Amino acid sequence: MLSRDVILGMLMKEPLSGYDIKQNFEELFSYFFDASYGTIYPTLSKMENQGYITKEKVSQKGKPDKNLYSITEAGKELFLSYLESPLEEDVIRSDMLMRLYFGHFADEMGVMKWFEQAIQQKQRVLELLEQDYERFKGKLSVTQEMCIEYGLKQHQLNIDMLQGALQKLKSIQEGVE
């Protein structure tokens, strides 16, 4: 899955400005897709050059002109071929898991602190996802609801696992001391 595929998917519904696309990446897709500001605009430019999208300058009163991007027929075909392609493996990139793997080189209190931080981070994300779910409820398709529900359950499972592992470390430490 490429940033291009996500952008084309957004444009399937309606034309969007670069700012709108950036907002969607930050608000809607940040839970399961990582795209930086520096990736979005070069991708838009490349897709325009390849004929997958068009750009229209729109005048705004009292503001600078904005670019409104629309998907072309070639872009629609490319997006639909993405949807029909085999699923890719999920890519996991976790600082917590890397540290944990090498945790035997760290002191026990430091490892427990990692767990506490990870639990706080996951709880914060879970709360934001719950808020977004309530905010967008009624405006979501069935598959979009399934996507958010999957994310909610995944974050809760991560929190439960982290809490259980932290408890295990505390029990081991209490047994040793």
- CATH architecture grouping of the largest domain: Orthogonal Bundle
The CATH class of the largest domain, by name, is Mainly Alpha
Series of H and E elements: HEHHEEHHHH
Can you summarize the main beta sheet? 3 strands, antiparallel
Residues in β-strands, percent? 5-15%
Outline = elongated
Domain Transcription regulator PadR C-terminal: 92-170
Domain Transcription regulator PadR N-terminal: 7-77
Keywords: Coiled coil
Protein name: PadR family transcriptional regulator
What does the model show?
This protein is mostly helical and 177 residues long. The protein has 2 domains: 3-84, Arc Repressor Mutant, subunit A (Orthogonal Bundle), CATH 1.10.10; 95-174. The chain has 7 helices and 3 strands. The chain has helices at 3-13, 18-27, 37-49, 73-84, 95-101, 108-136, 142-176; strands at 16-17, 53-60, 63-71. The chain has a 3-stranded antiparallel β-sheet. A hairpin with a 2-residue loop joins strand 2 and strand 3 (63-71). Helix 1 packs across helix 4. The mean pLDDT is 91. This is PadR family transcriptional regulator. Residues 7-77 form the Transcription regulator PadR N-terminal domain. Residues 92-170 form the Transcription regulator PadR C-terminal domain. InterPro entries: Tscrpt_reg_PadR_C, Tscrpt_reg_PadR_N, WH-like_DNA-bd_sf, WH_DNA-bd_sf. Keywords: Coiled coil.
